[in-house]
Amino acid sequence: MDYPNDQAPGAPVRSGIPEHGRIPKYYAVKARIALLVDELAEGNALPTERDLAERYEVARETVRQALRDLLLEGKLRRQGRGTVAAGPKLEQPLSLVSYTEGVRRQGRTPGRNLIGLDRFPCNAALAEETGLRPGEPVWHLERVLLADEERMGLESTYVAAERVPHLDTDFDPDSSFYSYLHDRLGIAFGDADERLETVLATPREALLIGTPPALPMLLIHRISRDTEGRPLERVRSLYRGDRFSFSTRLRDSSSTRLGDSST
């Protein structure tokens, strides 16, 4: 199949044009605005809706629909009463790497705002999911995730109080929980089970993250264990779909098995 010469890696096949060739007017405007955004530095303002409508000779509602798509895709973001170029998304590896390390690798400054730190008896549902004992004390740590002071997501962590008995006094909520476990307590991560899905934020979550409830979110559930296989934490991490992406490296397990069988 032949593709247009300007087909960029990772772009929609045939630039999103349907097979019948009829392109919705808003989509054609969106494509032209996207080219305009590519020429702007991060944080630079986009022309007003009125200016864009006059430039492309379309109704302002057509421009609004195009801008809504670009906002949801993360190419634009609201700033005050205007719209600015958002810059590239943050890319987080799907691995046992802390949020702090992942953000710093991209030259951004990580941070967190504490929402709450509570201690309560482990209920039956949490015990079944994590392997903890029903009724044993559990910490619940909830924080808003930041990058360069911009709110990026919401993280909810459950951990047995026995493993971190002084979490409320020894831990800086703005710092990395993984570093605290490793550097202060000598606890190392062994492995984890992780599941990724797309969701919409609840009204409470949208308020804490500072996004519209209709914005798609990336949700990660993680059950972590230490090097001895003991349950360590249960984490629910909610990331903004317009500002985050995830990456991983895959290997062909069949080639590994063939290699093992030949030795």
How would you characterize this protein structure?
The protein has 263 residues and is α+β, with helices and mostly antiparallel strands. The protein folds into 2 domains: 13-85, Arc Repressor Mutant, subunit A; 90-247, Chorismate lyase. 29% of the residues lie in helices and 32% in strands. The chain has 9 helices and 10 strands. It has helices spanning 25-38, 49-56, 60-72, 99-104, 124-130, 167-170, 177-185, 203-209, 253-261; strands at residues 76-79, 82-85, 90-93, 110-121, 137-147, 150-160, 189-200, 216-226, 231-240, 244-247. The longest helix has 14 residues, at 25-38.
Radius of gyration: 23 Å
Structural class: alpha+beta
Widest β-sheet, arrangement of strands: 4-5-6-9-8-7
List unreliable stretches of 5+ residues. Answer: 1-7, 256-263
InterPro entries: Bact_HTH_transcr_reg, Chorismate_lyase_/UTRA_dom_sf, Tscrpt_reg_HTH_GntR, UTRA, WH-like_DNA-bd_sf, WH_DNA-bd_sf
Keywords: DNA-binding, Transcription, Transcription regulation
Domain HTH gntR-type: 21-88
Pfam families: GntR, UTRA
Brief summary of the model shown:
The protein is an alpha+beta fold and about 260 residues long. The protein contains 9 helices and 10 strands. The strands form 3 sheets. A 6-stranded antiparallel β-sheet has the order 4-5-6-9-8-7.
Keywords:
six-stranded antiparallel β-sheet, Chorismate lyase, alpha+beta, 263 residues, single chain, disordered C terminus
